[in-house]
Amino acid sequence: MTGSGTQLTTPGLLPLDTTEDVRARRPGVAVLPIGSFEQHGPFLPLATDTVIACTIAREVAAAYPVHLLPPLTIACSHEHAAWPGTVSISAVTLHAVVRDIADSLRRSGIDALVLVNGHGGNYVLGNVVQESAGCGTRMALFPAPEDWEEARERAGVRTSLLSDMHAGELETSVLLHAHPEMVRPGYESSDFLADDRRHLLTLDMSAYTESGVIGRPSLATAEKGKELLAGLVDCFGSYFSILKPEAANSAPGAEDAIQKGARQDDTETSRS
């Protein structure tokens, strides 16, 4: 029952491997979900970004031999501070925690780490990956905007990346598919657009939306959420083949993923 003081939990989001499971799998790539704890309007939970990051990471771990880590649940959500319940840590702290995790993984024999980011405000993660060159741990940040765009097209998401900023069609669709019990009534009538947000980081979100929603959640469906996740799993193949090419051939769909990665490399070369 909602609104009664009962605390809702998020079951099934933590990996349940034993140390023997990891020993048998001998993963060379770890996957770290990183979310946030911030407002998502009146119909999605504060943990939405973490739930989505965990859901993506879980789907990836079901398709590729990676080491699935528990999530970082609080990150950089300062622009959402006007809404009750939002909690943040500094970019410096997030940077340090991710680096510590990478160092610990390397000591245990895992030298590649993918950050599965569920919150667009975690800008510092790009710097962590950028600075990882030459540090002994290869890193990647997933999904990239191009990955989201491919997945959105596959799923038939109608709202653009610009308009679908927060608690909109994409996020609501993923939760309707993966965790429908977390979506409360009201998303069907909560659409709100604010495409010109050039002063967002100066003024915070409250300058652009009263409800906390920027997007069109009324267009969300569980089927779109299912296809979004399937599209992202396919996109992950190129990341896996780059980080662990010697293991990529044994992963499901690896040949297609490697060919896709090669095509992307050719495209980037032709643009430069």
List the SSEs and their pairings.
Blueprint: H1 19-25, E1 29-34, H2 48-63, E2 67-68, H3 91-107, E3 112-117, H4 124-131, E4 138-142, H5 145-155, H6 169-178, H7 200-203, H8 222-243, H9 245-248, H10 254-271
Parallel strand pairs: 1-2, 1-3, 3-4
Helix pairs in contact: 2-6, 2-8, 3-4, 5-8, 6-8, 8-10
Q: Describe the biggest sheet?
A: 4 strands, parallel
Instruction: Provide the low-confidence segments as ranges.
Output: 1-9, 257-272
Distance between the termini: 55 Å
Number of strands: 4
The largest beta-sheet arranges its strands as 2-1-3-4
Give the mean pLDDT. Answer: 89
Question: SSE string, helix = H, strand = E?
Answer: HEHEHEHEHHHHHH
The gyration radius over C-alpha positions equals 19 Å
What is the overall number of helices? 10
Query: What fraction strand?
Result: 5-15%
Find the structural class using helix and strand composition: alpha/beta
Measured as a percent range, the helix fraction is 40-55%
Q: Estimate the global geometry from the Cα principal axes.
A: globular
